[in-house]
Amino acid sequence: MYDYTTFGSRLKSLRKHMKLSGKDLDTIFGMLRTQMSGIERDKTKPTVKRLLKLSAVFPNWIFTGF
Fold it and tell me: CATH number of the domain that 33 lies in?
């Protein structure tokens, strides 16, 4: 079961729902797998630049989670 209260857990849930691998998401956002893994585990925070890219790729999700 996922904890949907954190940004990282919501991002991981979206990735799995879209049937994307971690590598797919890394490619979309142009980052290393360790960086994306850190964000998904809530160890690091995404930069504003990455949040903007995320909102461009998944426009509704960033605000609604859907």
Answer: 1.10.260.40
E strand or H helix at 9? helix 7-17
pLDDT tens column, 4-53 = 688 888 888 888 888 989 888 888 888 888 888 999 999 999 888 888 88
* Range of the structural domain that residue 20 is part of: 7-58
| Helices and strands per DSSP (H, E), number in the chain | 5, 0
Q: Whole-prediction pTM value?
A: 0.77
Helix (H) or strand (E) segment spanning residue 31 = none
27-33: long-range contacts, CB 8 A cutoff, minimum separation 24: 28/53, 28/57, 29/53, 29/54
